[in-house]
Amino acid sequence: MTRLEGIRERLSEDPVVRVETAHGPYVVRLVGGRPVVHHALCPHRGGPLEDAYQVGGLLICAWHRSTFRARDGRTVHGPACSGLPVVPARFDGPDLVVDWPEEPSDATGA
Ligand code: FES
C-alpha cells in the first residue's frame, strides 16, 4: 500500500498527475469522479499516457490510438496487444491510498 499525499488537491488543479513510484511511473486521473491509477507508459510502444485522450471511461493513447478501458486497463482497440496496468486506489481525506497487487521487485538485484 502506498499513500500519495495531497493528490486530491493536485487533481483539483491538474486533471492528470504523474507520480514516480517504486513500481515505476504512474498517472492518477479522475474518471467519473473516481480516482484511476494507471501506468504512465502505453504498453504498445511506450507513449506517454498522461497525454492520452480521455473519452468517458476510455483512455486513448495519443501516439497510435490504442484504447483502454480506464477502470481495469483492458484493451478495447489496438495496436496494443496487452492491457494497461491499473491499480486499485481510493481517496482517504486529501490523500490517495494505492493498493499494489504485490511489492516491487528489486530491479537492480542489489
Ligand atoms: S504507443 Fe500507444 S498506441 Fe502506440
TrEMBL record:
Protein name: Rieske (2Fe-2S) protein
Residues of the signal peptide: none
Keyword line: 2Fe-2S, Iron, Iron-sulfur, Metal-binding
Every Rieske domain range: 6-98
Keyword Metal-binding: yes
Metal-binding keyword on record: yes
Gene3D superfamilies: Rieske [2Fe-2S] iron-sulphur domain
Cited Pfam families: Rieske
Single annotated GO MF: monooxygenase activity
